[in-house]
Amino acid sequence: MMKKQLNIVVLAKQVPDTRNVGKDAMTPEGTVNRSALPAIFNPEDLNALEMALHIRELAGNATVRVLTMGPARAADIIRDAMFRGADGGYLLSGREFAGSDTLATSYALSCALRKIQPDLIVAGRQAIDGDTAQVGPQVAEKLGLPQVTYAEEIVELKEKSIVVKRRLDHGTEVVESPLPMVLTVNASAPECRPKNAKRVMKYKFALTPSEIAAAPDTEAARRATEKEYLQITEWAAADVNPDPQQLGLAGSPTKVKKIENVVFQAKEAKKLTAADCDIADLMVELIASHTLG
Amino acid sequence: MANFFSDNKDLQFHLQHPMMRKIVELKERGFAEKDLYDYAPHDFEDAMDSYRRVLEIAGEVCGDVLAPNAEGVDHEGPRVVNDHVEYASGTVQNLKAIVDAGLSGLTLPRKYDGLNFPLVCFVMANEMVARADAGFENIWGLQDCAETLNEFASEELKAKYLPWVSAGATCAMDLTEPDAGSDLGAVMLKATWNEERQTWLLNGVKRFITNGDGDISLVLARTEEGTTDARGLSMLVYDKRDGGVKVRRIENKLGIKGSPTCELVFTNAPAQLVGDRKMGLIKYVMSLMNAARLGIGAQSVGLCEAAYREALKYAHERAQFGKSIIRFAAVAEMLSNMKAKLQGARALLYETTRFVEIYKQYGHISHERSLEAEERQEMKFYNRLADGFTPLVKLFASEYANQLAYDAVQIHGGSGFMKDYACERLYRDARIMNIYEGTSQLQVVAAINAVTKGTFLEQIKRYEEANYCEAMQPVVAKLRELTAQYEEMHSRVETLDKECNGYKDFHARRLVETAGHIIITYLLARQAGEAAEYMESAQVYSKLAAAKIAEAYAYVMNSPVEDVALFHKVEEETL
User: Fold this and answer.
1) CA dist B323 to A111, B222, B224, B328, Å?
2) Which among B28, B50, B166 is the top mutation candidate for probing chain A, defined by the most A β-carbons within 10 Å of its own β-carbon?
3) Of B1, B49, B54, the CB nearest to A197
4) Which residues in chain A have their CB less than 8 angstroms from residue B65's CB?
5) If you count Cβ atoms within 10 Å of the first and of the last residue's Cβ in chain A, which end, N or C, has fewer?
6) Which residues of chain A lie closer than 8 angstroms to B1, CB-CB?
């Protein structure tokens, strides 16, 4: 049992379900056709949510809230998380965030996290629409927090630190990190618990202010307005004091040149030593294959 | 990523039945709890929305957890360790998923932490669980025992046990003994009052007890020393935490292997009386059995669903002579019949459930206030229908589960005989369904009253008076003919039974099944008017029904009273 309340934030993303892709999954321009694919809770973010809920149980006195950036309908995954056990959530939404790459996304999230000041940030390793695995680590860097990636199991939760088992290519590693810190969670971690019947009935009318404003005369809006636990926090860019130049398209240096279907011929992983010559060779190889540059 | 609710349109259709409005209103007593509990519905739409959402959760747990575990559970099975049951590892995972999802205490009142859902939803969840793993359905479905406690136990016992069920405690009903199976009046397990400990103590042996090591057991025991019949039996509740019951062995069964069937030894096991002494078998077990029969009906329909899907999938995938086998007339006919039987059994299942639900709710309401004359009449009306329809659905659904499992194996050909495909497990699991909770033969004994007293015929006439769509007119016309034949058969049997005792017994199954075939066809014809996708099944089922009734009609109408003696001749045969 911890004395002080441990506030945990789970970073989650609503993604197109790229696991069951039909013919119209890609646009002729080579980008993801989001309208043709159902929007789901990013799978590894569900592993992250489960880990956060488990930590809450270990701590005894803790809260779990979800932070997501996305359009209005991304509130769906906050509700989903509440059905599974989360205490609430924050939706970061607005035109200013549109077109964000990982850099701009992690910047926007870190602005919101500065405002929330959590003791622990838990994110899925990567999202299935981009597979970059960059946002979690970038958030840690921007906030100057230690990070543990590929987390699979919480070995121990201490008063001021956390002991985590990481899943690596050829085995596992147990590390300890001081709190606050950022954890990114692997798909090999326990699956998320199912939605709970009573929680679904209790939280099904949880709404964001925009959703209430969009249909103010509905029974759902009336109930959400009456009960505080049914109100999902929603922040626009101005609410998190960002530098506008680092947001959305303006803050996104990534330009997609083209997308192709790559079939790995050999093993995906390549082992390098820390020697400078190995790294130089890799850079040459990546530039030659146009992966970089 | 399977969801056994979202992927099943037929199930969703039955949730939409117009009678749901009445059921929800009765169950929610005018939405009186809306401000008392944060998860209570405010109105009908709200309630229905919650049912759908929770059934989707159940569907997801069934598709993603229970179904993938089924094969492992079948192979591993439970074990006895230190006189107690240790479930297969998959069963343990299943129970955890069910508790996490909050799917326990589904029908119990909110004051006992239940969801206060209608029986219709419980039966639907039951069916989905059985489709995923029929053996696990026994463990999960036994939460129904809590309904018996809710109906008959004292407030003290309810407060002790019901919230525990809502939190996931598992139940058992300890009825059968080595010398008391179908004949429960012969139960000998002894209950003696211990003045010093102020408790009843149980001593004796129970056999074939499903989930016998469950947390809470309802035990049928002899409280009246010196008696030998049903009138000396009472119902008691035993709490596993108190100790005194050992699991001597788990039966090695043909199917539903994940469900531990236990032999139990009671040694001074403390227990508390449920309701009144001496009413154990006469009142409480009868109620328990009726609920359990509906439960097996749901389990059987779930198995039918699984068998049909396995068969359909294989028939599409398997190619012979250059085409999928589904394109061969013989296979297509089998599959069409399977689908019609599945949808027919389900139609009967939910019709029955609605009847049971309404009269049960009036029963609960009558404990809170006295019923209006009209309500009392309605309660009586539905009670009568429920008593006739419950054995009917158990009979039809469990026989169809066996037929569909048989056909599913047949469609798989040689592969179906191997352990590689799920259909062989379904085939083994189905076999118990027309045996336990009363064999098919005993369901006929229970249902023949509804033939004799005219309950079935009256209901058939009500169906006859309803409106049917244009396309169903030929089916409805045929049903009128079949009903006339049913009346003819019935009248002949009643007449000849007076001449020769035993004649009605001899033809009872033919009469009950004829009524059942007519009822199911009407239900499907009614559904065809509401949703076009039932058009084929209604037509196909009406052909099956017509053929079956023709056979029964020919048999009965040509059966002289001498047949009774003819079929008793076999008694003289010894080997």
Assistant:
1) 61, 64, 69, 9
2) B50
3) B54
4) 194
5) N
6) 19-20
Q: How far is B575 from chain A (nearest CA, A)?
A: 59
Residues of B with a Cβ under 8 Å from any A Cβ are 1, 38-42, 46, 49-50, 53-54, 57, 60-61, 65, 97, 100-103, 115
User: Is A156 domain-assigned?
Assistant: yes
Residue A218 contacts B, CB cutoff 8 Å: no
Quick check: pTM over 0.80?
yes
Containing domain of residue A250, as a range?
6-255
Cβ pair B102:A19 closer than 8 A: no
User: What distance in Å separates the CA atoms of residue B538 and residue B528, rounded to the nearest whole number?
Assistant: 7
Chain A residue closest in CA terms to B42 = A219
Closest-CA residue to B97 (of B79, B77, B73): B73
Specify the CATH number for the domain of residue A169.
3.40.50.620
Residues whose CB falls within 8 Å of the CB of residue B265, separated by 6 or more in sequence, listed in order: B205, B245, B246, B248
Residue at A262 is within a domain: no
Contact predicate A9/A63, CB 8 Å: no
State how far the Cα of B34 lies from the Cα of B37, in Å rounded to an integer.
6
- Is there a domain that residue A75 lies in? yes
B57 CA to centre of own chain: 22
Question: Is A219 at the interface with chain B, CB within 8 A?
Answer: yes
Residue pLDDT tens, chain B, 575 long: 799 999 999 999 999 999 999 999 999 999 999 999 999 999 999 999 999 999 999 999 999 999 999 999 999 999 999 999 999 999 999 999 999 999 999 999 999 999 999 999 999 999 999 999 999 999 999 998 999 999 999 999 999 999 999 999 999 999 999 988 888 888 999 999 999 999 999 999 999 999 999 999 999 999 999 999 999 999 999 999 999 999 999 999 999 999 999 999 999 999 999 999 999 998 999 888 889 999 999 999 999 999 999 999 999 999 999 999 999 999 999 999 999 999 999 999 999 999 999 999 999 999 899 999 999 999 999 999 999 999 999 999 999 999 999 999 999 999 999 999 999 999 999 999 999 999 999 999 999 999 999 999 999 999 999 999 999 999 999 999 999 999 999 999 999 999 999 999 999 999 999 999 999 999 999 999 999 999 999 999 999 999 999 999 999 999 999 999 999 999 999 98
Number of independent structural domains in chain A: 1
Assess if residue A169 is contained within a domain.
yes
- B248, B252, B255, B260 alpha-carbon torsion, rounded to 10°: 20
Beta bridge partners of A151: A166, A185
Among the partner residues A197, A199, A223, nearest to B103 by beta-carbon distance: A197
